[in-house]
Amino acid sequence: MKKQQYIVFGLNRFGTSVARTLAAAGIEVVAVDHDADRVAQIADEVSYAVQVDVADEDAMSGLGMEHMDGAVIAVSSNMEASIVIAMKCKEYNIPQIIATGKNEIHGKVLKKLGVTRVVFPEVEMGARVGKYLTARDFSDWINLSNDYSMVEMATPSAWVGKTLRELDLRNKYGMNVAGIRVNNHMNLQFSPDEKLQKDMQMYVIGKDKDLQHFNG
């Protein structure tokens, strides 16, 4: 089976983190940046690391973009460069393109060019931290979309000894249990008739407004 191949443009903290995570998952990663030091720092951790000026047509054409399953464009500080890269990715028909946006207008331009998803790392992390700080019953809060999130929470004492069927969380709170973790074991097929224990960590998905109401 052919390994997935991704190309990551921009080796700032975000781009480097994505490249390392993909490589650790067994994906072939081509890491690209104009800064030789950044390229050297990650060279031993990815399949191929190269210093390239995105304005150099010949250099860009030699990156094997036509073989890529996905691209990550982490150069939001340089809007012109990110737009050029996005256009190149579409030219080579890369099916999945994720790009960081500098602001809302930049994000709209990237979406118009066909970028699959535009992320705003600082904004999204700030929102996540803010929700975490105000979520007294939740130990983590992960945004899944504009309206839905997944939270991690310890099993409330009032729920211990009861089953998910008895608690009826979907109808009472608009929440769905995605998984249960005990120590380091994750169970994604937890029986609705199994009783909850106090040492269980619950991963719950719901609309933000429902989660906030429950947490309030």
Q: What does this molecule look like?
A:
There is one protein chain. The chain has about 220 residues and is α/β, with parallel strands linked by helices. The chain has 2 domains: about 5-120, 3-Layer(aba) Sandwich (Rossmann fold); about 125-215, Regulator of K+ conductance, C-terminal domain (Alpha-Beta Plaits, 2-Layer Sandwich). The protein has helices spanning about 15-25, 35-40, 55-60, 80-90, 105-110, 120-135, 165, 170-175, 210-215, and strands at about 5-10, 30-35, 50, 70-75, 95-100, 115-120, 140-145, 150-155, 175-180, 185, 200-205. The strands form 2 sheets. The chain has a 6-stranded parallel sheet, sandwiched between helices. The longest helix has 14 residues, at about 120-135. The mean pLDDT is about 90.
Low-confidence stretches: none
**How does the major sheet shape up?**
6 strands, parallel
Query: Could you tell me the number of beta strands?
Result: 11
Domains, number: 2
Level-2 CATH architecture of the largest domain: 3-Layer(aba) Sandwich
Q: Within the largest sheet, what's the order of strands?
A: 3-2-1-4-5-6
